Amino acid sequence: MTEQDKQSTAKRDQETEETHKVTDEDRTRQDAPQDDGAQVGTGIEAGGVPEAAIPELVIISGMSGAGRSTAAKCLEDLGWFVVDNLPPALIPTMVELGARSQGNVARIAVVVDVRGRRFFDNLRESLADLDTRGVTRRIVFLESSDEALVRRFESVRRPHPLQGDGRIVDGIAAERELLRELRGDADLVIDTSSLNVHELRAKMDAQFAGEEEPELRATVMSFGYKYGLPVDADLVVDCRFLPNPHWVPELRPFTGLNEEVSGYVFNQPGAKEFLDRYAELLQLIATGYRREGKRYVTIAVGCTGGKHRSVAMSEKLAARLAAEGVETVVVHRDMGRE
């Protein structure tokens, strides 16, 4: 081998050695942990996700046929990231992925129902996991009467997902039993028995459309006992201890929104005292609800027909709550049914 060939060979060996050295250094840098100031995942042990990065979470559940899909669509239209029929065990994972999105997924709504009944037992464990991570979550439960649910399933000619070889009412009963505990834990229960799609959307908009979440929202609902108790009521007030304006001929055609009817109701013995004391009781209850993180309460005020006494009392009670800083909506469920 000539001297020139020896020099060429040595030069190639040196270049090869340097190339290998650069490649090893690059690989070392790639394998090393990157410290760019960002946390990935919820990583409780590693310090966790900053609190501001954790998405707001709403879990939508309830009876099949009660309007879960409509409620979910409403939140989707309001800008929420909605996942339908997600297995409960994957809810913490979904929250973690939202936390990694750098604010792109700030609000997540998850629909959980009996279509995923094989995974439903994991829901309690997932909720406990979310509480451990400090995730603020709310449960919206869609309720409806058996009659309304049967009518809806028959109108679309579809079986109830739990009826098996039985009847629709058998599936409804099984589902109620399965969801009983979840309903008790719900932050917001909406009875859709007498609501159409537009009315349900209006209720969801009223609860979730605001940019700033109030401390407590109250719905004060008048109703008539002869039409049944509202199933979504948290508190029930009975005004039947007051004389009924129905038996006063000149007041019978009017409602509790009329000044003469309202004046008649509150001129009765005990009416003003009842309003004052119950309003004080609600202040105490509202303080406890805020402390426990409950954001929604439905107060049902009843009389015989839901036209006079309950309407007048609901209006006054709602005004008291609003004066105390509680965002209040008044609904007169049965007014006009007579």
Please tell me about this protein's structure.
By secondary structure, the protein is α/β, with parallel strands linked by helices. It folds into two domains: 53-211, Rossmann fold (3-Layer(aba) Sandwich), CATH 3.40.50; 214-337, no CATH class. The chain is built from ten helices and nine strands. The strands form two sheets. Strands 2-3-1-4-5 form a five-stranded parallel β-sheet, with helices on both faces. It has a four-stranded parallel β-sheet with strand order 7-8-6-9, covered by helices on one side. Helix 2 packs across helix 7 (197-208) and helix 9 (271-291) crosses helix 10 (309-323). The longest helix is centred in the first third of the chain and has 29 residues, at 3-31. The protein starts with a helix and ends in a 6-residue tail after the last strand.
